């Protein structure tokens, strides 16, 4: 088949690599210009550079749909468009243009976690598995019929970085197998159960602020979900931002006001957590390693040297 690819960052790069290694012909690549957004500066393997290395024409666009792009797409005469991590809406006049439509590759187990940063949101929510879905694009974002889906389990100590590496390794096989099924006419298009759908927004700095009224079990996942190189979970101590790099659930139950710097335990310092803490019902969060505003990674005990005081979500 003749294939046009829309994509960005490492997800798009892996997709394009799979297409280039397949028996299909990549005739045009459309990708975004480089961005200064925090989440777009990581996992930033260049789709444009890879395409140019292989002599594939490249167009840079923030949004599709202009006259030049439409002309180039029609000239490319694609049998299929393949998209992965394209950050803006693709209109019907584009996704319906190819003979076989448009295949979108999304790093969640659709219909859950449509939208942005699905691995981070899924880990925060305590999902037992994450994965990658190849589905046909329609007018509703991440809602089209599923061609293939693969899952990987979430372990008790997994970070978002761990899960990124496992899921990104699924992209190549899923892309190649999906294209072969579509080309051969053997693809089975399974409608999504929309009663199970969820949609998540793009993450921003505000989404990383720790809310100490959450139970410690949820906060421990919240920290793991924002592992380097992602922006870390953070709190404020004596007016200074402190990023939490490693934490665990306390062995003891500690009552009091959420956010209180309470007592040393194990390798860290217990912070009172949970809405039930005032009634002695919740475990605390043992903060073990932090990053200070000046970029130093330190044991929490070197930062919280005296017990008392509070961690807050504002300076």
From TrEMBL:
Which residues belong to any copy of the Formyl transferase N-terminal domain? 1-169
Do you know which InterPro entries this protein is assigned to? Answer: Formyl_trans_C, Formyl_transf_N, Formyl_transf_N_sf, Formyl_transferase-like_C_sf
- Residue span, Formyl transferase C-terminal domain: 206-306
Return any one Pfam family short name: Formyl_trans_N
Tell me the SUPFAM superfamilies matching this sequence: FMT C-terminal domain-like, Formyltransferase
Q: What is the official name of this protein in its record?
A: Methionyl-tRNA formyltransferase
- The source organism is Actinomadura fulvescens
């Amino acid at each position: 088949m003749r294939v046009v690819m829309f994509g960005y960052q490492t997800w798009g790069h892996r997709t394009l690599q799979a297409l280039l290694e397949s028996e299909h012909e990549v005739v045009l690549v459309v990708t975004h210009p480089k961005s200064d957004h925090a989440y777009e500066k990581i996992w930033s393997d260049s789709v444009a550079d890879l395409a140019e290395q292989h002599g594939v024409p490249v167009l840079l666009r923030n949004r599709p749909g202009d006259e030049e792009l439409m002309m180039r797409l029609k000239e490319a005469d694609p049998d299929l468009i393949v998209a992965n991590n394209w950050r803006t809406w693709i209109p019907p006049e584009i996704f319906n243009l190819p003979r076989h439509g448009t295949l979108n590759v999304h790093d969640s187990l659709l219909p859950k976690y449509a939208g942005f940063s699905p691995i981070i949101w899924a880990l925060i929510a305590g999902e037992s598995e994450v994965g990658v879905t190849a589905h046909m694009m329609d007018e509703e974002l991440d809602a089209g019929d599923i061609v293939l889906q693969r899952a990987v389990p979430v372990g008790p100590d997994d970070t978002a970085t761990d899960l990124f590496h496992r899921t990104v390794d699924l992209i190549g096989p899923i892309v190649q197998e999906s294209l072969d099924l579509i080309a051969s006419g053997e693809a089975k298009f399974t409608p999504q159960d929309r009663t199970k759908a969820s949609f998540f927004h793009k993450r921003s700095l505000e989404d990383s602020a720790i809310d100490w009224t959450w139970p410690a079990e949820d906060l421990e996942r919240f920290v793991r979900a924002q592992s380097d190189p992602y922006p870390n979970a953070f709190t404020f101590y004596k007016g200074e931002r402190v990023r939490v790099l490693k934490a665990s659930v306390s062995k003891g139950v500690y009552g009091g006001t959420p956010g209180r710097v309470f007592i040393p335990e194990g390798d860290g310092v217990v912070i009172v957590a949970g809405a039930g803490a005032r009634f002695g019902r919740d475990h605390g969060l043992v903060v073990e390693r932090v990053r200070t505003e000046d970029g130093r990674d330190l044991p929490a005990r070197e930062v919280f040297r005296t017990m008392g005081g509070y961690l807050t979500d504002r300076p």
